[in-house]
Amino acid sequence: MYGPPPLAERIRQVEDRLHVISALATALEDPVAVLQLVLDSADEDGANAALRDHFGFDIVQARAVADLQFRQTSGRQRAAVLQERELHLSLLTDLRQAQAQQQAVAAHYDARAATYDASGMHRDLAALVAERAPDLGDGLVVDVATGTGLVLRAIATRRPEARLVGVDLSPGMLAVARTALPRAQFVQADAAALPVAGESVDLMTCVTALHLLAEPELAFDEWARVLRPGGRLVTATFGADTGGPARPDLPQGFARRHEDYRTPEQVRRAFRDHWFALESHTEHELQGDRLLVCVLRRVG
């Protein structure tokens, strides 16, 4: 069984609920008219048609209004509906901001895909992360924000029997990854909604991407869902005064939250409420960038 639905599906669900809520709020402005229309109708279909004609509802809204139970005063019911609407509007704003972050990140890395592997820092960092991969046998490795698959390529060299899955938002980066490492499976997916069964993963990696996650709290919960107890998560983040905007000539428009992950203590705090314990860390300087590599264990 997989985890939460992708972000686009959650947005659709909230929009659908707001569509119904708007009709309920309108109906509760004139509950007497609603009751009279329903009582004057011969059957359910007639009531739905009458509500559509009178209020301009569509069939989904009409059915929801026809199902209203006037168990308390209409004023109290309408207040509750309006409160629900405000909550859903706030949630929709947050979800759309997350979606905008994902779309901007994907556009930026699509534009970098053809030249990304030229970065010596990223190649060297991938090798460092691969060194921390335990002896997995044919265990499952999932690399989140895999990009061009540099980390999985490095792991494949050291752990040839491991099953490899890479997840990324950028179709351009994934196209490069599929060409470079045909034996791995590469999937365009949200880091917070992985197409992976629960407790099936032995090792996860997320390299220089924590700062780009649109919904980090949900992502960390999702990683805990798919990792088996005792499985490892290896992250790499930028240290102090590094990790500034890369390639300002390319599409931008997204947030970089480096400040949440610059030190081992910050990484430990970020993951401690999501069933992860910091096991070890090392610090490195590569091509002028300071990098922090952390190994976390899935507890519980």
From TrEMBL:
<protein>
    <submittedName>
        <fullName>Ubiquinone/menaquinone biosynthesis C-methylase UbiE</fullName>
    </submittedName>
</protein>
<dbReference type="InterPro" id="IPR013216">
    <property type="entry name" value="Methyltransf_11"/>
</dbReference>
<keyword id="KW-0489">Methyltransferase</keyword>
<dbReference type="GO" id="GO:0008757">
    <property type="term" value="F:S-adenosylmethionine-dependent methyltransferase activity"/>
</dbReference>
<dbReference type="Pfam" id="PF08241">
    <property type="entry name" value="Methyltransf_11"/>
</dbReference>
<dbReference type="GO" id="GO:0003918">
    <property type="term" value="F:DNA topoisomerase type II (double strand cut, ATP-hydrolyzing) activity"/>
</dbReference>
<dbReference type="InterPro" id="IPR029063">
    <property type="entry name" value="SAM-dependent_MTases_sf"/>
</dbReference>
<dbReference type="InterPro" id="IPR013757">
    <property type="entry name" value="Topo_IIA_A_a_sf"/>
</dbReference>
<dbReference type="GO" id="GO:0032259">
    <property type="term" value="P:methylation"/>
</dbReference>
<feature type="domain" description="Methyltransferase type 11">
    <location>
        <begin position="142"/>
        <end position="234"/>
    </location>
</feature>
<keyword id="KW-0830">Ubiquinone</keyword>
<dbReference type="GO" id="GO:0005524">
    <property type="term" value="F:ATP binding"/>
</dbReference>
<keyword id="KW-0808">Transferase</keyword>
<dbReference type="GO" id="GO:0003677">
    <property type="term" value="F:DNA binding"/>
</dbReference>
